[in-house]
Structures are given as C-alpha cells and as structure tokens.
# Entry
Amino acid sequence: MQALRTAATGMAAQQLNVEVISNNIANMNTVGFKKQRAEFEDLLYQNVEQVGAQSSSQGTIVPTGIQIGAGVKSGSVYRITTQGTLTNTGNQFDVAINGQGYLQVLLPTGDTAYTRAGNLSINDQGQICTADGYLVQPTIAVPQNATSVTISQSGQVQVTTPGSTTPTVVGQMQLATFINEGGLEAIGDNLFEESAASGAATTGSPGAAGFGQLMQGYTEASNVDPVSEITNLIIAQRAYEMNSKVVTTADQMLSTAVNTKS
Amino acid sequence: MDNAIYVGLSRQITLQRALDIAANNLANTDTTGYKFEELMTGADPVMPAHSKVGSTPVTFVTANGVARDYTQGPLTQTGEPLDVAIDGKGFFQVSTADGTRYTRDGRFMLDPTGKLVTQDGDAVQGGGGDINLDPKKGPVSISATGVISQGGAVVGQMSVVNFDDLSVLSKDGNNLFEDTSNSTPQPATGALIKQGMLEGSNVQPITQITRLIEINRAYAAASDMITSTSDLSKSAVERLGSATS
# Structure
C-alpha cells in the first residue's frame, strides 16, 4: 500500500520541522542567531494513467490522467537573515551590526569564519576576540593603558590613553558580505563558514554601500519570534498526527481486506 | 450476480488509490504552493460487469482521473525579501535541466553568481530570461506587478504566466508543474506578486481526515458485500445440493 509509505514521508518531514523549530526556540537568547525554517517539496509522481492517453479502443481520451504522489521531502532548511533587535549592554567591546555584513573571525585551524555575534572582548595581549577567544580580523590590539575604547559606526577603533587629550586610532574593523547569505554553512558557536552556495566574501568598511553600521555597546538579539515558533510547533504536531491517522486508516483497510470472508 | 464479488473488488481498488491520494495530500499540508488532488471515479464505460444488459446495467467502478484544486492557498509572511507569493491565478516560470517548468513556490534565493534561483537551484525566468541581482546595490524590492528594483533603479521583471486550460499541467515533483501540451502560457492577468510572503498548501486537513474515514468505511462496506455475496452462493450450493440428493 502506497498510502503507508506516503504517510511515513509526511511524518518524517514533520519530525524534521519540529527539530528545526526546537533549535530556534533553544536559541531564542543566542546573540546574533538567525532563525531557520524547513521548506518542503512534493515527491515524484507515479503516472498511473498518462494525461491524454487513450482509455479504450474507441479512442476515448483520458481527460486528466491519474497521477499518484509519493509524499513529501524536505527541500531545504533555510536561514531567515532578517535583523534581530539591538540590545544595549553597555560593554565597550560589544558591537552589533545594524544592516548587512558579518564580522570575520580567525579560527585556530587558520580558516576564516563569519559571525554576527558581536559580544567581543579582549584577550591577554589586548587583541579584540570573540567570546570563544578567536581573533577578530583584521587584528586590532588595544594598548594596556587605554582608559576608554570607542568604536565608531564606520568601524574605526579609537583609544584614549592617560596623558593624551586626543584619541588615537588603533584599527579599522571590517565586515564581509555574501551574495547568498542563506548559503553560509553554520559550524556552531555562532559561526558560519563560506560555502559553494554562499559565494565568495566581499569585504568592506562598515557603513559603506551595501554594508551595515556598527553600534558600540549593543549586541544583536536572535530574530526568533517565540509566538510564531510555538504556533509552528502546534501546526507541525497536528500535521504529524494527521499523517499517523493515514497509517491507521491504511492499516484498518488492510485488516478489512485480510478478514474478508469468501 | 456472479460478478458481484468483482464489482466489490473494483470498488476496493479505486478506494485504495483514493487513499494513496489523500495520504499524499496530508503529507503535503506544509508544502509551499501545493495544490490538493482528489480521485474521480465512475462507471467503467467499456467493460460491463454483466454479460446481459438488463434494465439496471451492472458496471465496474473505475478511476477516470485526478481532479486538482487550484484554489489559492493561505499567504504567510516570512519577511525574507526574495520570498514571493502569487495572489491570484498564475505560475512562476522556472528553467530546469528537463525544460521549462511552472511553480507557485516562490521561495527564491540568489546563487553564488547572483542569479535568482529556486531552492533546487533552477533559474527563475523573468521578462527577459534569467534574473540577476547584485546584493550590493541595496535592498531588493518587488512590486505587485513584479518589477524588481534596488536602490530606486529597476533591475528586473518577474513574470507570472497562466494557462487557458489547467488540465494540461501534470505534477513533476519538487513543487513543479509540467506543461504536457504544446500550448503557450499567457501572461497572467490580475495576479499580484506579494514580496516577503509564501503561499501555503491549500490542503484542508479536516476535509482530508473526513475523506480518510469515508474511504475506510466504504472499503469495509465493499468487503461486507463480498462476504455476503460469498455467503449467498455458499448457501445456494448447500440448498441446491441437498435438493438433488
């Protein structure tokens, strides 16, 4: 019975849906997290009777044909890259990106990763790094005796040192953008890596055309909307139940067939 | 009379097929742009179930087609600038490896070269072929008539086409429809493009669940009929057999 297998594909799809939704809810408070959505596509169709086929020797034509679908499959799980709300933290090393772009991070493997989590800090050598200690590229070192650090909207990092009235520029932060942001590969720890689908990174200064601005003292909250996630969860659960109803019905029909007395 | 078992069987075969179709509808309750289907059954016009045509003709049941309901599915907001939904009749044109296909799934994105593609990577066709966008030119805005603009400048045109007769379309999987005739689609009139939205599946779960119950009961009824027909011939054989002995 095809219906049993079809219902199984439906249940598998809804299971994936619940997994994606639960990951969104789990990351509701993750800085810079972008919610994901599972997208489904119908599976191949079996042509039981071809559209326009002859149904009899008299030349009767089948008007619509009979196509029986084999169920559903997951097309893609894509990331919705809308802006998250900016939250004021007061931490002078926190930067939120208002607009497009990713901060570049040097991984211990030597690869470059990209992130929107701007909860930065400095390491023991005064270099600006992420919460995991990965260096932000290009490397910017803050002198040990700096009394205050200012990061401008265009990414210029200025420090004030004792005995000096004018701030000194110690570096310029850079952002990277991609043609297809949704194609970035998430590697965990709020980091993304470039992939064949995302295209190559284009770097530029914050505030330039096509790049977002940096907001010092803010972090970008996740763009997960709890209400819509819970709603989606309910929809997914009901859809799962309905597919299980198909399994029950197919099972009852098979049992009817088996118990037919003749 | 002797064919009643086979008439019952023909009913059961069509019911199994109807269940397959209802199962596919329910599996696709969450599929973007999915259009639900239903099996159409009727009396077999060719093969009578009874050799003698009496006052009440006896016929087999046969599946004579699948009806597809093209009514609009609900529009849901996603907020993604490249998600588009069609409000009204019509289809987006997609160029695949197997030729031109049609879809109502407007979950589009850019490939690494900046071409507008579906989630399977097939190029979306606009007024002048492929649509190419450069994200650096600023946010993409798509008007209700399909004009794509970036930073105030028009950069492309989305096209929505429709067919005079929708029965020429056959489903191809991956949310795509195939044109099985040689007809040329016409630009759709009255179809509005909604940016940042997707069209949900038009499957109504409650109808499909009711359909499941209906199929289940009808199957059992056909099975009962087969049983009672069988009982009837059994008792006939017993009685006639005892009369001659």
